[in-house]
């Protein structure tokens, strides 16, 4: 498989890097149900580290060509993203749609990132995350085919399809329906902007990864998702924004970068929505295991976090939660 894939990659990259290209050191990094990530070297008169992402199309994730387009537009707006060499929705060349980009050095494992940061490093990275989100949100998405999405409605449907719910989830859905703030400006939304999907190097934020859930929506969705408890990976509540700093420090840094004021009441609504969404995701992952669709200890373990998420939702609805 690797040899065949290397040969196919060589053919894909010849128009980009020249006829003398050779593909070496091809190795799989991750392999999920939908997409696989490979690392390899493209060798011409120099050696260039590249990343291949490939997998079958589905109805949930953005196409490879759309991912490439929005990353290029986000980069033009100032967001740190890997340089893309090629992307194609056709399976003709590699057997599945694909995206090829430059590899970026740095760390993605969150606990290693935390251990390497002092207080000044955390504050710097928090500010860089806010600046990156502001850049993504000002990117021009028009004409790129980015779909709109109401993630909350999607998770409501997902829960109904499973035929399972909890009293806390139902209360939260009802509260959100009754208190939804007025619609704000529609922007390019990353959809999964969080620790774990960022590359961090000695200079701080090096790249924003994993654009599969990109869509058009409200900026508060990305801001709130970054601040749910799951994505601070055990850090204390005072570091509620990605385990890096306070939520207020994050929002203030975003306001400075975006040149606008945020509505704190709207943000709190979106924080409840994001926390509830994570709870439904946890329940759905458990269902994949329990139904026999994908037997996995990891999925079962994620399902055990439903109760943790219910606590977070209740805390927020009682006026507590991250400050």
TrEMBL record:
Listed GO molecular functions?
kinase activity
Residue ranges of the TM segments:
none
Q: PANTHER family given for it?
A: AMINOGLYCOSIDE PHOSPHOTRANSFERASE-RELATED-RELATED (PTHR21310), BLR2944 PROTEIN (PTHR21310:SF57)
Fetch the CDD domains from UniProt.
ACAD10_11_N-like
Q: Where is the Aminoglycoside phosphotransferase domain?
A: 26-244
A Pfam family this chain is assigned to: APH
- Transferase as a keyword? yes
| The name this protein goes by in its record | Predicted kinase, aminoglycoside phosphotransferase (APT) family
Q: What is the lineage of its organism?
A: Bacteria, Bacillati, Actinomycetota, Actinomycetes, Mycobacteriales
